[in-house]
User: Which sequence fits this backbone?
């Protein structure tokens, strides 16, 4: 189905509440949001604002308590864990603050993992993983292990692992939170390049200079969108 | 477009890839894996050792019984417990034997033997004496029981007819008495009587540590006169039925004959019993079967305990790898993939444990066969290998399931947050 305005993601009146010790805590309140293909978005907000909850929902790690979430025109707000896993595998590429690599696997094996979950034939997986690692400039280290490389390089591996499945959405959770300023700008340069190649990117961050890189800034406060600004040229 | 394998192959692929990653997981925790599977190793090792020993015993027993002659039937006096309590002792007499011999048809051979009540009677040679089992027999005895001379000859009918003082001895008795290399022609002394050695039997080895070559045969008539008072004239009757004869009918007719000889009423019990090789073998296999069963039950319990060991460690391993599971789930691993992966790890652990146990058992048995002299050597029965490996694998599945299910049901967000 072809969407009229090329919407990749459509959140409609999304609510999410948790019950904590008998009290209902509303993390998200009737939040509506539309994300188009090839957008480059930063989600910011103070801690406890609900931005992590939003990220979990966008990443199909969690389901909303109310409202609907359509991804590529498909309602994904009420699915079982197995189907959600499949959607995560095909449509979402995760990048975490602390990289979350498999420490006992070589870099190439790390990048191959998502393709195993998808039952890609083994020869093809290696080819794809090679390509992805080349894209992040790590072709020479494919057989190294995560503890043998720097933090910046680890995050590059994580990005390669996120890209290898050719996801619709690259979702970063404080992707530079554990990196120094030099490495941060390198990683951000990589995100910029990916965006230029047409990748849709959503980064959850509290760093303002990261947010400044992005073309659209969404600020969440108390489970609601407080502001949604776009850079004028976009 | 990324190519994917078709659906039908996916389960198979999950299995193959899960096994590889299970092996990697086991490899990366060598020490822990070894300890985890130790219970299975010991359990399987015990299965192998027990089964192998029981097999060896069965082979030996069957060989021994075969030596006795498969068709041979022995008729022995039998006293019921009730009669025993009344102080009665039933006997088969030489008259019973003669009566049967005259009236029984359908036997190849029927002969009698007489044994001293006290198993050991002293035999002396050159100032040396030894306890032995003295048996009085006819020449036909050789036709019923497989017993072959190594030197000299067995008893002949004229020895019996003439009540000759000749003996045919077992090889270990010859050794014990330090008889010369060829003892034929030597004289041995029993009580105050002298006997000529006419032959030495081929060695039969030992069974359960019992020397089977410590015996002495003399003509039945001689034995009757010498052992008379001691043996109370009790004899055993040994016969071999003709080929194709209905053995039950034959036994029935013998029964009738013997009961008639004593004018027994219908309500009185038999004073004799039949012993057949088949019956003996059956008794032995019942015993070995029961022993095997008990041993296997104990081993089964130890394997289950081993399984619990696997479950404990797998549960720890799931907790330890919560973060890893969270990452895998975020990257799109389905619950069933996680389930299969952990289940396979438990199965592979159990399977490898079984293989290690197999190896250990084989090592123990081959070491044992070096120490214990055994002509046939030890063999490990195939059924015990298949049974122990299958049982261990099943244990892996049963006890691996709970931890695997726990892993597969972890919430990805919580798992990712786990430190």
Assistant:
């Amino acid at each position: 189905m072809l969407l009229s305005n090329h919407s990749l993601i459509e959140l409609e009146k999304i609510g999410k509440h948790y019950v904590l010790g008998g009290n209902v805590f509303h993390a998200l309140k009737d939040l509506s949001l539309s994300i188009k293909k090839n957008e480059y978005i930063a989600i910011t907000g103070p801690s406890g604002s609900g931005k992590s909850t939003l990220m979990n929902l966008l990443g199909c790690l969690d389901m909303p308590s109310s409202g609907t979430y359509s991804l590529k025109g498909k309602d994904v707000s009420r699915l079982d864990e197995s189907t959600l896993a499949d959607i995560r595998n095909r449509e979402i590429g995760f990048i975490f603050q602390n990289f979350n690599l498999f420490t006992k696997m070589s870099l190439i094996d790390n990048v191959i993992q998502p393709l195993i979950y998808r039952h890609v034939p083994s020869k093809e997986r290696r080819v794809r993983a090679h390509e992805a690692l080349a894209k992040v400039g790590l072709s020479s280290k494919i057989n190294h292990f995560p503890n043998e490389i720097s933090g910046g390089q680890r995050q590059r591996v994580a990005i390669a692992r996120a890209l290898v499945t050719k996801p619709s959405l690259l979702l970063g959770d404080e992707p530079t939170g554990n990196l120094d300023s030099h490495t941060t700008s390198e990683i951000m340069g990589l995100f910029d390049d990916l965006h230029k190649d047409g990748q849709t990117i959503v980064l959850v961050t509290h760093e303002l200079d990261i947010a400044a890189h992005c073309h659209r800034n969404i600020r969440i406060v108390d489970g609601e969108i407080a502001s949604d600004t776009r850079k004028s040229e976009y | 477009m990324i190519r994917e394998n078709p659906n039908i192959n996916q389960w198979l692929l999950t299995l193959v890839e899960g096994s590889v990653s299970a092996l990697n997981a086991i490899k990366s925790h060598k020490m822990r894996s070894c300890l985890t599977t130790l219970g299975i190793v010991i359990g399987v090792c015990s299965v192998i050792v027990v089964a192998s020993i029981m097999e060896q015993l069965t082979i030996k027993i069957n060989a021994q019984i075969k030596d006795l002659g498969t068709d041979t039937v022995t008729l022995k006096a039998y006293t019921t417990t009730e009669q025993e309590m009344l102080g009665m002792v039933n006997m088969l007499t030489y008259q019973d034997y003669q009566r049967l011999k005259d009236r029984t048809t359908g036997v190849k051979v029927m002969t009698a033997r007489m044994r001293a009540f006290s198993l050991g009677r002293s035999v002396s040679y050159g100032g040396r004496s030894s306890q032995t089992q003295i048996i009085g027999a006819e020449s036909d005895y050789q036709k019923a029981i497989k017993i072959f001379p190594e030197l000299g000859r067995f008893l002949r009918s004229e020895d019996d007819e003439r009540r000759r003082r000749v003996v045919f001895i077992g090889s270990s008795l010859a050794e014990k008495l330090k008889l010369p290399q060829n003892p034929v022609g030597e004289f041995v002394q029993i009580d105050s009587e002298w006997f000529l050695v006419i032959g030495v039997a081929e060695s039969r080895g030992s069974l359960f540590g019992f020397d089977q070559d410590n015996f002495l045969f003399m003509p039945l008539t001689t034995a009757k006169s010498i052992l008379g008072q001691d043996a109370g004239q009790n004899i055993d009757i040994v016969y071999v039925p003709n080929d194709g004869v209905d053995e039950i009918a034959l036994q029935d007719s013998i029964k009738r004959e013997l009961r008639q000889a004593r004018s027994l009423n219908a309500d009185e019990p038999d004073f004799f019993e039949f012993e057949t090789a088949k019956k003996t073998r059956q008794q032995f296999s019942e015993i070995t079967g029961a022993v095997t069963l008990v041993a296997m039950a104990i081993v089964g319990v130890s394997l289950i305990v081993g399984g619990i060991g696997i479950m404990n460690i797998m549960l720890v391993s799931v907790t330890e790898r919560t973060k890893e599971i969270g990452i895998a789930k975020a990257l799109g691993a389905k619950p069933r993939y996680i389930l299969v992966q952990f289940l396979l790890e438990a199965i592979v652990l159990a399977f490898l444990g079984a293989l290690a146990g197999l190896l250990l058992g084989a090592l123990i048995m081959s070491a044992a066969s070096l120490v214990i002299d055994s002509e046939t050597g030890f063999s490990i029965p195939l059924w015990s290998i298949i049974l122990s490996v299958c049982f261990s694998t099943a244990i892996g599945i049963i006890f691996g399931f709970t931890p695997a299910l726990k892993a597969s049901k972890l919430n990805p967000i919580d798992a990712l947050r786990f430190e």
